[in-house]
Amino acid sequence: SVHERMTELGVDHHWEDYGPGGHTWEMWERDLHQTLPQQLAHANANPPTPEAFSHTTIDRSYDIFDYRVSMDRVALEFSRLQVHGPTSFAVEGSGTAYVTTAPVLEPGTPYDVTVDGNVVTRRRSDSSGRLNLAIDLGAPHLLQQHTAAADLVGRGLRRAEVSLQPVSHLL
User: Fold this and answer.
1) Model pLDDT for residues 106-160, shown as the tens digit of each residue
2) In angstroms, what is the C-alpha Rg of the chain?
3) For residues 106 and 104, what is the distance between their CA atoms, to the nearest angstrom?
4) How far is CA 90 from CA 83, 147, 167, in A?
5) In what order do the strands lie in the sheet with 96-100?
6) What is the pTM of this model?
7) Cβ count near 94 (within 10 Å)
């Protein structure tokens, strides 16, 4: 049973044996009243920002693990944010990606922002440890991704690797 396997794996769970019988509306309604508050609390909890993750979406703007991304583009196409660690990420798409980092940097600290190996700007993190960046991904595409017309012109998305280095102050 699922219960036995979860126990073997050491997964914390709740098991209630109803004995013989089937699922009735009365059992379902009672269990829903008992468990829904815990399920909603778990669903609404803010999980910690993982060290690394990747997120792909068709949305122009999105928030994921305290990162905020807004794509300034013309055509409908996918974009991807791939976070390698607190000071390194990649963004993929076309046009301009406006990225606000998660609040994981040292507040009020200047950072050199390197894109594809070239230092492009110096920015100071805000009081919560975030940087607001505009990443150039080339001219925005005019044709929707994965259409016959777009496939004919053979366009691809541009990937920009971004790293953030705190600026050390020498006396």
Assistant:
1) 999 999 999 999 988 999 999 999 999 999 998 877 666 666 666 666 667 889 9
2) 23
3) 7
4) 6, 25, 21
5) 61-64, 67-72, 96-100, 132-136
6) 0.70
7) 23
